[in-house]
Amino acid sequence: MIRAMLQRSLLFALLWWVLVEGRPDSWGLGLLAICAALWASLRQLPPGSRRLSLTGLLGYLTFFVSNSVRGGAQVAWMALRGRQALQPAILEWEMALPPGAPSVLLLNTLGLMPGTLGVELTDDRLRIHVVDERLPILAEVAVLEAHIARMFGVGT
Amino acid sequence: MLEMASGGLLCIGAFFFFAGTLGLLRFPDVYCRLHALAKADNLGLGCLLLGLALQADSLAAALKLLLIWPLGLAASAGVSYAIARRADALGIAPWRRKDP
């Protein structure tokens, strides 16, 4: 508990320092903001309820950044070619991740990955709009799901 | 050197914003347009912010610029899903190719 509070205070202090661009004269208000943020974070996310794996997080972030670049380039190329480059379809995906944060993260990440857009998430099913059904998109969703499962330390 | 890298990134970012807007105008339905906006504009935003951060006066100012990216990503992902879901609930069928 004490350790989590210290870690979070440090994180919020860093965030405040970034927000005020390192000016030293605003730490009075900053202290107030840090306390308020700490209180809210302890309420919303009690310590010990969920631990993220650091290597999992790193793996996810690497995957995310490289696929963002690929997704942006792919859709830019399609925009230049016009609608003959498209072959949209709606695919179904069975969620293996538990509901809550892991599922929501998968859904939101899909909106930024190449060729996919979540349309409807129910308890264990996700309908995905894909921009070109000829691409091996479901295999990529499986890779993303594995990354998220590893990060949250849950089995799929 | 830093100036050149920054300028290059800003140009790349502008190109992706251009491509995203082009997709918004040219793609046939709401779902495909969301693809264009969410992906191209986010990459464009990332490049712009990285380019600006290279020119920032202090480390804190650079980090502040980079902090905008994840916030923009989260907003764009959430809003894309909200629009797609609403369109789907209203029964708007996705555009399909006539000649598969």
UniProtKB/TrEMBL annotation, chain A:
It comes from the Bacteria. GO terms for molecular function: monoatomic cation transmembrane transporter activity. The keyword Cell membrane applies. It is found in: Cell membrane. InterPro entries: Cation_antiport_E. It holds the Pfam family MNHE. The keyword Transmembrane applies. One of its GO terms (cellular component) is plasma membrane. Keywords: Cell membrane, Membrane, Transmembrane, Transmembrane helix. It is a multi-pass membrane protein. Belongs to the CPA3 antiporters (TC 2.A.63) subunit E family. This is Multicomponent Na+:H+ antiporter subunit E. It comes from Pseudomonas linyingensis.
From TrEMBL, chain B:
InterPro entries: PhaG_MnhG_YufB. The chain crosses the membrane at residues 6-25, 37-56, 62-84. The keyword Transmembrane applies. GO terms for molecular function: sodium:proton antiporter activity. Keywords: Membrane, Transmembrane, Transmembrane helix. It comes from the Bacteria. This is Multicomponent Na+:H+ antiporter subunit G. It comes from Pseudomonas linyingensis. The lineage of its organism: Bacteria, Pseudomonadati, Pseudomonadota, Gammaproteobacteria, Pseudomonadales.
